[in-house]
Amino acid sequence: MSITKHPRRLIVRVSVIALVFGSACITINRIPRETYLGSHHVRVTPACQSASTHSNRHYEKDGSSRIEFYEFKCGDVTILIRDNLLNVNGKSYGTLNENDIIAVNYGNVSVNSTRRAADR
Predict the structure, then answer these.
(1) Would 73 be classed as within a structural domain?
(2) Do residues 41 and 101 touch, judged by C-beta distance below 8 A?
């Protein structure tokens, strides 16, 4: 069987091979990106390529210190916790208790699996 006699079969075979191997290169990042901000477990879905966390510690004259805020940036999502107040992308989502679990899932904000709306 010559390649030139059956060009359609060759095209179909090459296309199938390209689809099989090409699909391995496609990544859909639905896996969440997770971190801890103090005692709070934070999860952002979809995951971002790069993420960063930051906190600011304030030192007193007597040598004591406290964390002023925690911040987590994941792609277009910025989560800020200051004085147990949750802020996502510049909007307030109420107060937090110690060990609360925060999830930002495609823009929807939940605390301990309960969806929260932004404060007005």
Answers:
(1) yes
(2) yes
Q: In a 3-state reduction of DSSP, which class is residue 71?
A: strand
Domain count, the chain: 1
- Which structural domain, as residue segments, surrounds residue 50? 33-116
Q: Is 2 helix (H, G, I), strand (E, B) or coil?
A: coil
- The pair of structure tokens assigned to 76 is 């277009």
Amino acid at 110: S
pLDDT confidence bin for 13, thresholds 50/70/90 = confident
CB atoms within 10 A of CB 74: 24
What phi-psi label fits residue 104: left (phi over 0), alpha (psi between -120 and 50 degrees) or beta?
beta
DSSP symbol at 52 = E
CA proximity to 35, closest of 57, 19, 54, 58: 54
User: What pLDDT digit, counting tens, does each position of 36-78 carry?
Assistant: 999 999 999 998 888 999 999 999 999 999 999 999 999 999 9
Residue by residue, DSSP assigns 89-104 as TTEEEEE--TT-EEEE
